[in-house]
Amino acid sequence: MTSAAVDSWAQISVKAAQTVWDRFAVLPKKLTPANVLKLKVDDMRAAGLSARKVEYLVDLALHFDNGALHVKDWDSMEDEEIIADAREVAERIVMSDPQLETMPHLKTEVDKLRQEERAAYLEKR
User: Most buried residue, 12, 26, 56, 77, by most Cβ within 10 Å?
Assistant: First the structure.
């Protein structure tokens, strides 16, 4: 989960990201998905996480904790299989909320991808 959390902070400076990470990492006794799910949102926000980043981390922790991602198998899986595993999770999210009303930030990103794909398709024509 560490690299995924760091990736979510790629938009801020390295020093700022490290500061936020250092504050966040000491909140749980041990940094595990189950322990992240026990954290209070206010505590995560006080560590420097935006509301959106808290949402990302909680959602990611839920998927790790409930076994939706087969992390124990990743060492023996090809990259394409790991991507397929993550895609299944994404498809379940979309199937349960097709309009992504509960995840407006994800809807925004999906809309951007669709626009980029549409533009690339039209360029080829």
Answer: 56
